[in-house]
Amino acid sequence: MKVLVTGASGRVGANMVRRLLAADAEVRALVMPGDPQAAKLAGLSDVEVVPADLGDQAAIDAACAGVTHVVHLAAQLVRGDTPVDRFFDVNAFGTLRLLEGAVRAGGVERFLLASTDGTYRPGDPPRVPLDESTPQEPADYYGTAKLLGEVILRNHAAQFDIPFAITRFATVVSPEEAGAVFTLGYLRELLGRVALGRDSNLWQLFREHPELVTLLDQAAGDAPASTPTVLTGPGGAPWSIHLVDVRDAVEGVYLALTHPDALGRAFNIAGPAPTSFDDGAAVLADGGPTLTVELPIRWRLEMTVDAARDTLGYRPRHDYRSMVASVHDDYVPARV
């Protein structure tokens, strides 16, 4: 098995490269030219690192030559100042160019596309929990671009007989990042996305309640940013979010890449269970005090991994407590 991994310097990508090497696969790692995070791959032996932009068809054709599998992880999550057409070009038409590269190279045994819970409209989830049959109507730039990538993949696969599978990630967290998730500072940043207007993937969350971050700040007073914080809806029901440890995300991708029953299907890849904000804050507080802020709405972004469990044998090992506790384990951190 010779695998082309795009986004190989990313949070999932570098750990995916290690997983493939452990399975005795040959790995060609595609990284953006000049990416400082490519240093993550420097200590990994027998990896062919190829700098290439997802907009460069000739470079992608060369990268696809001779590989048997493609793991397409590369994506731009936050648009920022990137023009909308370039943002879609990276997240959707980069997939098309890789598929074209695979076809021109004579085909592959499997093309794995990493997608996202963002295709399910995370700011206003249509159901709880989200399963793979949930309507995909994201209505934001990132979710729409990733959904377009899925559509392109399905149609190109039908047109050119490309075996494929899709994984839709929950919020991917590296262990060294986990200790910040349920803190006041992190949640202030989350709710602060209201400033992005409809450029945010969570804009529906703020549609009726643009004051959420103001309410948080009023309740927090001068509490430090590191304060473990619980957000609740009316009556005290806690918010919840589904996280996935980067190591579990990698295992889900590997199973979807190699399991015969994954062909032609999409699978949610998430942690063992959603994390309620009160449980998450309690882990960080470790018996100490937490800050609780009641907001006028309740948000629950939860997924089911039943399909991946039943079909692929996916068994995520890391809940939120395990993420926080395993910060010193052996993995590639999110940033060098």
From TrEMBL:
Matches recorded under InterPro entries: Epimerase_deHydtase, Lipid_A_modif_metabolic_enz, NAD(P)-bd_dom_sf
Domain NAD-dependent epimerase/dehydratase as annotated: residue spans: 3-270
Signal sequence region: none
Record SUPFAM superfamilies = NAD(P)-binding Rossmann-fold domains
- Pfam families from the entry? Epimerase (PF01370)
Q: Which Gene3D superfamilies match?
A: NAD(P)-binding Rossmann-like Domain (3.40.50.720)
In this chain, the stretch annotated as Disordered covers: 117-136
From the Swiss-Prot or TrEMBL record, give the protein name.
Answer: NAD-dependent epimerase/dehydratase domain-containing protein
State the organism named in the record: Actinophytocola xinjiangensis
